[in-house]
Design goal:
CATH class of the largest domain: Alpha Beta
Number of strands: 6
Distance between the termini: 43 Å
Radius of gyration: 17 Å
CATH topology of the largest domain: Rossmann fold
Structural class: alpha/beta
Strand order of the largest sheet: 2-1-3-4-5-6
CATH architecture of the largest domain: 3-Layer(aba) Sandwich
Largest sheet: 6 strands, parallel
Order of helices and strands: EHEHEHEHEHEHHHHH
Amino acid sequence: MKRARVLLGDDHTIILEGVRRILEPHFEVVGGVADGRALIAAVAELHPDVVVADISMPLLNGIEAARQLQKSQSPPKIIFLTMHPDATYATEAFRAGASGYVLKSSAAEELVRAIQEALRGRVYVTPLVAGEVLHGLMRTPPSEEKPAALTPRQREVLQLVAEGRSAKEIAEILKVSPRTVEFHKFRIMETLGLHTTAELTQYAIRHRIVSV
């Protein structure tokens, strides 16, 4: 029987190597990448059946990467393997199209099971947050809890700004001009009613676009 192809995404090499060892007896691990933008590129190149990724990744966080991958013609199943036991992260992950949510503190067998369930078309949530996630998905957050509507590109720029990158660095990453980056930053501030880079960073942390 052909083994399912799995792509890994985590910015810690030791985690990538450990997860690879756990999964290789069960699946074909086709590669590992260290940031969300590389993850999207690798999916386009390698066509994995499943992606196992962290939420907190540089350049593009895992949840935003999942949103973008869902727009592809044949999106892979996405399992988040993360240190965040906060059900709010998990709820956002499933709203972004995830098929599984597993904590890094879980047993190895739980990750294998999550992938197997995803391949069967099911959803897996680690038992530690399952009840809270269900509650979060069923309720509509009060308007004050909702982040203001930003475009996907604005969310990318916001994360990169919050990571402390300059307009020139962001321009190189996104392959646009520094002037375009500054325009996006201005529009983000205008939309959010913020005035400084520090306020943008605080907003990004509060709404889990970046983590500390």
